[in-house]
Amino acid sequence: MTKLFLIIVLLSLPLFANEYVVVMSKDSPINSIEKEDLKRLYLGKHIHINGLFFKVLNQDIYKNPGSTFIKDITNMEPRTYLKWWIKQQIIGRGVAPHVKLNDKELIEELINDKLNIGYILRKSLTKELKVINIIK
Questions:
Q1: 124-136 burial, b if ≥16 CB within 10 A, otherwise e?
Q2: Nearest to 23 by CA among 84, 111, 83, 85
Q3: Residues contacting 115, CB < 8 A, separation 6+
Q4: What is the pTM of this model?
Q5: Pairing status of strand 32-34 against strand 133-135
Q6: Chain segment 12-45, per-residue pLDDT in tens
């Protein structure tokens, strides 16, 4: 039984390695976020939740984890999301998420401010960050 369990765990590791997690600094007062609030943050519809001002961090939306995250949270394809943001910038609405090149850059920015919010691959998780539960 133990061997079977170990085999199942080892075979499932690659599946979880590409999974994204929403993260903030371990010092953040936030432990969970409503999916709808997360969507609003990434669409620039608001950057305040419970009186707290968030800095929203994004990654390349044409690569993982960016493409998967954007589809899951906003229900938009990356191209549609980009067009939507171009339109918002032209009409002067919303604050676009700050784009970071990779997990490493994003983690550095997250650690610097307890109200920065972003997402990374689960395998990139560090002790300076905490996973924010998404409430559906």
A1: beeeebbebeeee
A2: 111
A3: 24, 28, 52, 53, 54, 55
A4: 0.82
A5: parallel
A6: 444 444 689 999 999 999 999 999 999 999 999 8
